[in-house]
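[Discussion] Sanity-checking designs against the backbone

I'm trying to build intuition for which residues belong where. Below is a structure token string of 385 positions. I'd appreciate it if someone posts a full sequence so I can compare it with mine line by line.
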């Protein structure tokens, strides 16, 4: 981990108490307050993956994910927005260089939000390209400078042919537009990660300049560097960085509760003196250490492959997704176990234990960590066998 990341982590530690004290406000407002957005900008969160050529930090993968985990440990929503906001510039690298330069002309702290599910359409008309659709889960859209959505390319209202010819998947392209071009629909009333402001965003017959289209799957990067070979390989591991941090926050919360000397109803000893409690606590920590170890190992592999120039690899993507799915499921179990150990005290809105439980369950619903990704890992194993 380099000196820049160490400095960022030191700043986060200094701010941890102040950030943690804002948890109820963040949830109630269903977004990140403007001053905390500015705090994240000043720390350098949104420039972690921005190339140095454009004033960014261009951190190695391990350093960036350590920062995201540290913020997630303090507050789930802030950590989630840090993960999404720091990774989003990778999509922008698939734009033409002139557009990328324009986006960062005022500095590296540009905030990008968007959604990767292809729930919109993009059609070329006599007047140019037009974008239509609604995209869910646009985390950070409330404070974004730019936003993007992925659309199916259509011709005369029908999906255009894909790159694989007849019978292949339809062609898809991303569309990157200033935040003001999008409509934000107030839909984020949810069970967890409430402070992320992950509303729907939409376009209705919106003009999209041709040079604002990009291919995030097969497109070439407009900037050079190990980070910019592939977008998809870094998305699921960043999710793991968030989830491990949230689970660490859950463990912190149950330890803090026990250290108050709390004695639960009809129990002979205080929680911290109970062998049953200590047994469960030790088991939970072992599970958490396992998730951290797998995440860190996967990150090391990704960075090594990035340095070797082989990050864009389907087998590596399958392995990273496999690890992310297992980590997500295990982190949910950790959150559930910490909540159960908290007893009646955990159920109140004021308890971080119920918040962490809800946040972990919502995070684990993300498509990037759906168990179906085990299928690709299974196919890969059979090929190797």
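Best answer:
Here's mine. Compare freely.
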């Amino acid at each position: 981990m380099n000196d820049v990341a160490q400095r960022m982590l030191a700043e986060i530690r200094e701010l941890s108490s102040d950030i943690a004290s804002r948890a109820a406000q963040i949830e109630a407002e269903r977004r990140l307050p403007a001053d905390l957005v500015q705090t994240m900008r000043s720390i350098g969160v949104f420039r972690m993956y921005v190339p140095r050529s454009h004033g960014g930090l261009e951190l190695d993968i391990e350093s960036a994910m350590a920062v995201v985990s540290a913020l997630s440990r303090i507050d789930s929503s802030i950590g989630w927005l840090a993960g999404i906001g720091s990774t989003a510039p990778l999509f922008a690298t698939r734009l033409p260089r002139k557009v990328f330069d324009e986006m960062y002309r005022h500095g590296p702290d540009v905030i990008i939000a968007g959604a990767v599910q292809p729930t919109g359409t993009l059609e070329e008309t006599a007047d140019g390209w037009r974008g239509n659709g609604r995209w869910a889960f646009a985390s950070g859209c409330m404070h974004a400078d730019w936003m993007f959505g992925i659309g199916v390319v259509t011709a005369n209202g029908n999906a255009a042919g894909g790159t694989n010819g007849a019978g292949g998947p339809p062609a898809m392209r991303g569309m990157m537009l200033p935040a003001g071009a999008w409509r934000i629909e107030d839909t984020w009333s949810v069970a967890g990660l409430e402070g992320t402001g992950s509303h729907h965003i939409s376009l209705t017959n919106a003009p999209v300049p041709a040079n604002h289209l990009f291919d995030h799957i097969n497109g070439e990067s407009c900037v050079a560097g190990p980070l910019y070979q592939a977008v998809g390989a870094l998305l699921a591991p960043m999710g793991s960085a968030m989830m491990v941090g949230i689970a660490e926050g859950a463990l912190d919360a149950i330890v803090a509760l026990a250290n108050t000397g709390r004695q639960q109803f009809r129990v002979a000893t205080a929680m911290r003196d109970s062998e049953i409690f200590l047994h469960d606590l030790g088991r939970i920590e072992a599970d958490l250490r396992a998730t951290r170890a797998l995440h860190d190992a996967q990150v090391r592999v990704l960075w090594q492959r990035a340095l070797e120039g082989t990050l864009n690899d389907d087998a590596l993507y399958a392995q990273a997704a496999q690890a992310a799915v297992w980590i997500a499921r295990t982190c949910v179990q950790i959150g559930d176990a910490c909540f159960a150990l908290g007893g009646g005290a955990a159920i109140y809105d004021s308890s971080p234990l119920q918040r962490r439980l809800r946040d972990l369950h919502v995070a684990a619903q993300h498509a990037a960590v759906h168990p179906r990704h085990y299928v690709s890992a299974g196919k890969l194993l059979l090929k190797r066998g």
